[in-house]
């Protein structure tokens, strides 16, 4: 999942007065810490996952099971690296950049592989990836006004996406194959709904930031005019 995206890991900064990110009060952790190492492992798992997923044409249940294992490990490390970074003050510039890249890389790789194999409609992949990339870009656009926090709905969306994609990676048949369709349907709905909510939050945040800036400019101008009299 999480101006830097909430999952951006390894932690989010707190907005300083005026809406900009403040400087951390403590020295930044070194690059080689456990949180960053887990992020690097997740990045390395992406090409491994793709290879496993596409072995023997992409339909061998055994290779798909191994691909699922790689995907599951990547999802688990996503949870732990951010938690460790925030808990033990291991936030680094590398983590802020690499963590969201790793998140979207493993999810994007899984969705594209599934669609290319015909297991998942391309429009589902387009909706999920379009939402993730769009919200990430939007966060960077409005970061000057403040940080959009991760919501409970966003976390539910991430869980639903990970569960649904993981079920599609496995070569399921029968009732489980039907069940994964409905899990994916829930994931798509949460993806759209939470995406619209983030857009709403961004609009509100931008308007508040602009109003604050205009008020500050008006006060400054009034003070300047008073000084000239």
Strand content: under 5%
Q: How many distinct helices? A: 6
Kindly report the average pLDDT value: 81
Order of helices and strands: HHHHHH
Q: Report Rg.
A: 21 Å
Described by strand count, sense and barrel closure, the largest sheet is: none
Q: Decide which structural class fits the backbone.
A: mainly alpha
* Shape label: elongated
Report the helical percentage. over 70%
State the end-to-end distance. Answer: 56 Å
- By DSSP, the count of extended strands is 0
Flag low-confidence runs: 1-26
Question: How would you characterize the overall build of this protein?
Answer:
Helices cover 72% and strands 0% of the residues. The chain has 229 residues and is mainly α. The longest helix is centred in the C-terminal third of the chain and has 54 residues, at 175-228.
Please describe the structure with a list of short key phrases separated by commas or semicolons.
about 230 residues, mainly alpha
Fold topology:
Blueprint: H1 34-54, H2 61-87, H3 93-116, H4 122-142, H5 152-169, H6 175-228
Helix pairs in contact: 1-2, 1-3, 2-3, 2-5, 3-4, 3-5, 4-6, 5-6
């Amino acid at each position: 999942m999480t101006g830097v995206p909430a999952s951006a890991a390894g932690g989010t900064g707190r907005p300083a007065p005026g809406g900009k990110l403040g400087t951390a009060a403590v020295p930044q952790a070194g690059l080689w810490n456990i949180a960053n190492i887990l992020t690097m492992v997740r990045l390395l798992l992406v090409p491994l996952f793709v290879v496993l997923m596409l072995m023997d044409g992409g339909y061998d249940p055994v290779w798909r099971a191994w691909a699922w294992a790689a995907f599951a490990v990547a999802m688990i490390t996503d949870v732990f690296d951010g938690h460790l970074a925030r808990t033990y003050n291991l936030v680094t510039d590398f983590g802020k950049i690499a963590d969201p890249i790793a998140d979207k890389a493993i999810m994007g790789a899984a969705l594209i592989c599934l669609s290319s194999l015909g297991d998942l409609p391309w429009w589902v992949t387009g909706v999920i990836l379009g939402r993730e990339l769009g919200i990430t870009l939007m966060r960077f656009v409005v970061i000057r006004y403040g940080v959009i926090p991760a919501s409970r709905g966003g976390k539910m969306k991430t869980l639903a996406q990970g569960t649904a994609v993981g079920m599609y990676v496995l070569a399921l048949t029968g009732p489980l194959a039907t069940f994964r369709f409905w899990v994916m349907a829930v994931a798509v709905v949460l993806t759209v709904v939470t995406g619209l909510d983030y857009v709403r939050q961004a609009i509100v945040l931008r308007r508040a930031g602009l109003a604050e800036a205009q008020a500050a400019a008006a006060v400054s101008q009034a003070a300047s005019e008073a000084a000239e009299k």
